Amino acid sequence: MNTRAPAVEARQLVKTYPGDVTALGGMDITVAPGIVFGLLGPNGAGKSTTVKILTTLARPDSGTATVAGHDVLRHPDRVRRAIGVVAQQSGADPVATGRENLQLQGRLYGLSGTALNRRVDELLERFTLADAARRPVKGYSGGMRRRLDVALGLVHRPEVLFLDEPTTGLDPEARTAMWEEIGRLAGEEGLTILLTTHYLEEADRLAERIAIVDRGRIVVEGTPDALKGELRGDAVRLELGEPVGEAGRTLLTGALTALPGVHEALCEGRRISVRADDGAATVPALLAALDRAGVTVASATVARPSLDDVYLRHAGRRYAEAETATETVLAGGVR
Ligand SMILES: Nc1ncnc2c1ncn2[C@@H]1O[C@H](COP(=O)(O)OP(=O)(O)OP(=O)(O)O)[C@@H](O)[C@H]1O
Description:
Protein name: ABC-type xenobiotic transporter
Largest sheet: 6 strands, mixed
Organism: Streptomyces fodineus
Pfam families: ABC_tran (PF00005), DrrA1-3_C (PF13732)
Number of helices: 12
CATH architecture of the largest domain: 3-Layer(aba) Sandwich
Order of helices and strands: EEEHEEHEHHHEHEHEEHEHEEHEHH
Helix content: 25-40%
GO biological process, one term: daunorubicin transport
Number of domains: 2
Strand content: 25-35%
Keywords: Antibiotic resistance, ATP-binding, Cell membrane, Membrane, Nucleotide-binding, Translocase, Transport
Bound molecules: adenosine-5'-triphosphate
Radius of gyration: 23 Å
């Protein structure tokens, strides 16, 4: 059992932005030291606001938080010494070389002389940037820039590293390389990593524990396997010929959950999600029940539970829908 104090502890963080936007509505997080903790949620869920508060860049309206044992409101300077931050936007100077960027960052943290040079060389090597070290950053690929950003966040050997959407905007190859890099970092010298992501796959792959954020709160937290394990059996998804109305929905879900081996059924618009012991074996009975109810089925698929199903269960909507809903809001200029 891990008896060390939490690396990050936030209690009931509330943050409201002008225009009555509640970004955080009582956020609680506890991150044990030495693990990769994933804050997973769609755009606008409140992940960046949480990171800003924990990294002392914003103040909560109420609530408390400690990072590496220091109170973010009372001792922001101590927190800043103990953390590394890799923000969504690169902090590197594009005109300076990779080496110069690292040297400047090191100096800001009080390193100098051979200690600084040694640390810079080590990081350039570590992030496979040694060959590009003398080239201006503006000529780097997206993946190289991101690796430099992470190296910059590590110059002063922080206890806690914040990675805000580390792979957003990277092509699939660079994303996989970054995942491998983060995986390697995780095993190192007790470093704690808090990463935010809106990629289900990223959280599943990297994080030892995941907290799902929806509308400014944690809706569920646990290991990826435990979260998926909550959902017994297979997920069966049925696409309907036409949407089902409110009244029909209750009748249908009642009829489907009465079938043997079916644990739950959720109907939203044209889609029915069913959880069943043996998905493939249950499909014929599901189709027959829907046929009896006069509902036409366009397609049926069987899958192992994914984090998307966990999100649906706890947030009450599909992950992709939550993302689209936010995009609509953004397109409307509300943000
Ligand atoms: N400076 C601001 N002024 C007004 N509203 C804001 C501001 N920053 C964030 N918000 C709003 O607060 C909510 C939470 O935003 P936040 O950026 O924390 O979410 P997020 O989960 O990090 O999303 P993203 O992945 O897009 O960064 C959203 O509704 C957002 O529009």
